[in-house]
Structure formats: C-alpha cells, structure tokens
Specification:
With 180 residues, this protein is an alpha/beta fold. The protein contains eight helices and seven strands. The longest helix has 17 residues, at 57-73. The site of magnesium ion has 4 residues, from helix 1.
C-alpha cells in the first residue's frame, strides 16, 4: 500500500493541466482531490468569472489564501490551485510548510492550445488573449520554478501519462509518498 504523507499542491499556468492531471493523480493514489478554484466557487455560489467581475481580483486572491490555509490543515490530498495562487509569498509559505509543490511545466504554445477556446478564465478576457497569456507566462515562470518538484508536459502526453509522471516523481520522495 502507498500512503500519501503530505498534501501535493499542483501549480503552474492556466492550461497546464493542474485540475485534469491532479484529478488523475488522486484517482491513481486513491486519495481525495480538491481544487482551490472549485472551493472558492462553492463558497461564493458564483463562477470565477463572476467573482472577478463583481468582487474583483483582490477579493478572489484573499479567498484563495483562506482556502489554501484551510485545506493544507486537513488530511493529505491532491490539491490543485489556480494559476495565480503560487505567486503570493504567503501562499508559497503555506504550501512549503505543510505540503509539497509540483509545477506542471508546459510551453506557451501548448498552454495556448489548451485555453484558447475557453471563456472561463477572466484574466484572458482581453483584446489580445494570446499576448496576455505570454505576458503572464514570462512574469510567472520564475516564480513557478521555486516549486519543489517539476514535471514537464508535452503535446503527446495524455492526462494519464502526465499523472503517471507525477506519481513517479512523488515516489522518489519518501517524505511524501510511502510504500510500493
Ligand atoms: N496532458 C493533457 N493532454 C490533453 N489535454 C489536456 C492535458 N492536460 C490538460 N488537458 C486539457 O487542457 C484543458 C486545461 O486543463 P486544466 O486541467 O483545466 O488546466 P489548469 O487547471 O492547469 O488550468 C482541459 O480541457 C484539459 O482537459
Ligand atoms: O492564472 C490565474 O491567475 C488564474 C487561473 C485560474 O485557474 P486555472 O489555472 O486552473 O485555470 C483561476 O484561478 C483564475 O481564473 C485565475
Ligand atoms: Mg484548474
């Protein structure tokens, strides 16, 4: 039996697969999956886009920190975050103290292919979303690189392939994943 000893926090850009791959990792390890975006939506009773529109990004970020702090106090799980969560030093400290961070690294073209047809991400509702994504990417990559574990994406790796790579990386860390 494998036992998860720390919460695994998935970080990275919008479209990196944090939600999809995180779900598959949790299934593979038979542990709970949680997504900070989903927790915020549930509590606020409105979508991420509506929260940004009506309450503003600062309100969203404050809720994000509360959710991370609460979930990191709970039993070990796979916790996917929104792409901006790891940018905050407070959030990074919370993650570092109680969990382990995993950056799903993907190049800009792959990310764009994944997010271009979706309208659910308020930060990309600009006149040139491709360029906005590039700017966010350039500003954020140095911060994501502070994550403890990095797992590389590629266009030919499925969600399950990526989940298997994450599990293999976690298995190298006996303080995170114990047993066979
Ligand atoms: N490895 C993958 N292969 C194919 N599609 C993927 C992969 N990872 C994610 N996706 C798809 O890309 C989109 C964005 O993934 P998502 O998990 O929502 O990313 P994030 O939570 O990091 O923003 C979704 O439609 C998802 O199904
Ligand atoms: O990158 C960001 O700042 C955001 C990413 C989104 O989550 P995903 O990364 O899961 O799309 C969501 O939290 C919100 O739209 C803000
Ligand atoms: Mg997500």
């Amino acid at each position: 039996m494998r036992r998860l000893k720390k919460t695994v926090v998935m970080v990275g850009m919008m479209g990196a697969g944090k939600t999809a791959v995180g779900t598959a990792v949790a299934r593979a390890l038979s542990v709970p999956f949680l997504d900070s975006d989903e927790e915020i939506v549930k509590a606020a009773q409105r979508s991420i886009a509506e929260i940004f529109e009506r309450d503003g990004e600062a309100f969203f970020r404050a809720r994000e920190t509360e959710v991370l702090a609460r979930l990191l106090r709970g039993a070990p799980c796979i916790l996917s975050t929104g792409g901006g969560a790891f940018l905050s030093e407070t959030n990074r400290k919370l993650v570092q103290e109680a969990g382990v961070s995993v950056w799903l690294r993907a190049d800009l073209d792959l990310l764009w292919q994944r997010v271009r047809h979706k309208t659910t991400r308020p930060l990309l509702r600009t006149s040139n979303p491709r360029d906005t994504l590039r700017q966010l990417y350039e500003a954020r990559v140095p911060v994501y690189s502070l994550a403890e574990i990095v797992v590389d994406s590629a266009a030919d790796l499925s969600i399950d392939d990526m989940a298997a790579k994450v599990v293999a990386a976690l298995a190298l860390r006996k303080d995170v994943l114990e047993g066979e």
